[in-house]
Specification:
Layout (H helix, E strand, L loop, with lengths): L1 E6 L4 H16 L11 E10 L1 H12 L5 E4 L4 E3 L5 E5 L4 H14 L3 E4 L11 E5 L8 H8 L7 E4 L1 E6 L4 H4 E6 L3
Length: about 180
């Protein structure tokens, strides 16, 4: 899978990587290593035309100013394959940008993941998946539930990332906002 994402800035980038390591050491949750870059996703698909996507995102980013993001606690997407995550508060600005990204990038994407369309999208920072189960969920929640996840940070770029274990090869491009 690939995604149009915004990477987390420091110190949150390192905090999330440290949480991933801690969840692996203490709870046996290692599946998140597939994500490899702390981020939140705007659009996800099985594949993108990289050149076309880069052009689209570069044009879109040239008209975007850095903006503030706020997170709100910790949550779990329930179901057969739960995801432990930090929700990002949706604002009009975020919703508007999300809609612009979807409209622009869809022609460059193959097998789009519909859970990321405006109707279903819950922006979030993933902390654990796809190996969360009944045996390790309690461990993870005990580890995380009493931490402060009310974060504020600025977002200033879009990236196209893909699923691979090699963290350096994971980012196909990163484009900073132009305004």
């Amino acid at each position: 899978m690939y995604g149009i994402v915004s990477e987390l800035p420091e110190p949150y980038y390192q905090i999330v990587e440290d949480i991933w390591d801690e969840l692996e050491r203490k709870c046996g949750l290692s599946g998140i290593n597939e994500a490899s870059i702390p981020h939140f996703s705007w659009h996800v698909a099985k594949q993108y035309d990289v050149d076309k996507s880069s052009e689209i995102i570069e044009k879109l980013a040239s008209d975007v100013s850095p903006f503030r993001v706020r997170t709100a606690g910790i949550a779990v997407f329930t179901g057969e394959s739960p995801i432990i995550q930090i929700p990002i508060v949706r604002t009009r600005e975020i919703n508007s940008l999300h809609d612009r990204i979807w409209e622009a990038i869809n022609p460059a994407a193959v097998d789009i993941v519909q859970n990321f369309n405006s109707e279903y999208w819950i922006p979030h920072i993933s902390l654990a998946y796809p190996d969360v189960n009944r045996d390790n969920l309690n461990c993870a929640m005990q580890l995380l539930a009493f931490r402060d996840f009310r974060w504020h940070f600025n977002v200033n770029s879009f990236s196209l990332i893909g699923s691979s274990i090699d963290r350096d090869a994971d980012r196909l491009f990163k484009i900073r906002f132009g305004k």
